[in-house]
Amino acid sequence: MSPPLTFPKSLHLKSPAEFKAVYDRKRSVSDGLLVVYAKENALPHTRVGLSVSKKVGNAVARNRCKRLFREAFRLSQHELPVGIDFILIPRNVSREPTVEELSASLVKLARDAARKLTPRPG
Known about the structure:
Elements: H1 16-25, E1 28-30, E2 34-40, E3 47-50, H2 59-76, E4 84-90, H3 99-117
Parallel strand pairs: 3-4
Antiparallel strand pairs: 1-2, 2-4
Helix pairs in contact: 2-3
């Protein structure tokens, strides 16, 4: 049986202080679809926050973008590194990406960001 694919409030970054802490860690990776900021959280699960600027479009477009990102996170959360906070920021793309494209991009970028967080020996 596969683990549940839910997205409870405990997996959300909520407060401005939580967002600021992730941005202040200054660890990010990106591709053509999104930018991912990451920070260790010392929790047994991964949390995610979304930052969608007005450059993406009007409120309808921004909310659609956030729904797609939340769904991509929900479907791929068990493939992501544990104990890390992520902030997802969409790149200004001319077409709307599919959930599958976002999920694949999120998993790859999350792993790359987690590697940037681990201290190198030596």
